[in-house]
Design goal:
The chain has 290 residues and is an alpha+beta fold. It is 36% helix and 12% strand. Among the domains are: 54 residues, Classic Zinc Finger (Double Stranded RNA Binding Domain, 2-Layer Sandwich); 59 residues, Double Stranded RNA Binding Domain (2-Layer Sandwich), CATH 3.30.160; 55 residues, Double Stranded RNA Binding Domain. GO terms for molecular function: DNA-binding transcription factor activity, RNA polymerase II-specific; RNA polymerase II cis-regulatory region sequence-specific DNA binding; zinc ion binding.
Length: 290
């Protein structure tokens, strides 16, 4: 018998997801998550929901028990979702689904700018930044911005380790020359100047490139995408340096000065052409014989 038959009071059960009270288990199981009332517009953005589930390890709060359960795995290291095709395991079912696409080859997320497809929305989001030029991660010291968080972290380690607490400058020396790089990724890119490796293939033509960034800039010649916008006149450009050069037409800046006269230029190419007036050097002509 239930306690209510003795006390005359109805006991209630509370849904761990939304906090709704129910008279019995049947009513509790009948709750439709889609019909759970959403936060009203007059609620404060910072207002906490009435029922929070706190992590006993770090104290972090979660609105749903299921979210707390997933979070606890970051502390326990539990990985209850095994891949059926290899030995890897994952803490969340969604991560397992994304991983399994490595085996199946499924890529359900297409890029709207080019023909590439991706196994996850996260991969697609990172790729889209190569088209849009978006750089959401900003260095608070020198104001440079980056498309990926680890690019910003590498930048801080390499350029501002003496300012940022917790960072120690580490160098990655090249085994083929005397150059020393600021990260393992930078060293890997540099070593291709010795090996001649060009692993990045253009998806529109036969050209190959040693650096992924060079490939991205090259493919814009095919797609016509111009993600860099002039704030003064609205013109758009495929590469950052062409926008920087163009902006000098508005500011009047001419940073490239001739050492033999008082003329200055907006781009290094203009200075090289001008220097030939003084040196008498003639531009190289290439002839093709049929």
């Amino acid at each position: 018998t239930s306690l209510s038959t003795h006390t005359g009071k109805k006991s209630s059960l509370r849904c761990p997801e939304c906090g709704q009270e129910c008279e019995n288990h049947s009513a509790l199981q009948a709750i439709d998550p889609a019909e759970t009332p959403a936060k009203t517009s007059d609620q404060s953005e910072n207002e906490k929901p009435p029922f929070l589930h706190s992590c006993s390890v770090c104290g972090k709060d979660f609105p749903y028990a299921s979210k707390l359960q997933r979070h606890l795995r970051t502390h326990s290291g539990e990985r209850p979702f095994p891949c059926s095709m290899c030995e890897k395991r994952f803490p969340e079912k969604g991560l397992l689904m994304i991983h399994e696409r490595v085996h199946t080859g499924e890529k359900p997320f297409p890029c709207t700018f080019c023909e590439k497809r991706f196994a996850s929305q996260g991969e697609l989001r990172l790729h889209r930044r190569t088209h849009t030029g978006e750089r959401p991660y900003h260095c608070s010291i020198c104001l440079k911005s980056f498309s990926r968080h680890w690019h910003l972290k590498t930048h801080l380690e390499a350029m501002h380790s003496e300012v940022v607490a917790g960072f120690t400058r580490k160098k990655f020396p090249c085994s083929d020359c005397e150059k020393s790089c600021n990260s393992a990724a930078e060293l890997r890119d540099h070593q291709r100047t010795h090996t001649g490796e060009r692993p990045y293939q253009c998806s529109f033509c036969d050209k190959r490139f040693a650096l992924s960034g060079t490939l991205v800039r090259h493919e814009r010649l095919h797609t016509g995408i111009t993600p860099y916008h002039c704030s003064d006149c609205g013109k758009t450009f495929a590469q950052q340096w062409t926008l920087t050069t163009h902006m000098r037409t508005h500011t009047g800046e001419k940073p490239y000065s001739c050492t033999q006269c008082d003329k200055s230029f907006v781009a290094p190419g203009e200075l090289r052409r001008h220097t030939r007036i003084h040196t008498g050097e003639k531009p190289v002509s290439i002839w093709f014989w049929c």
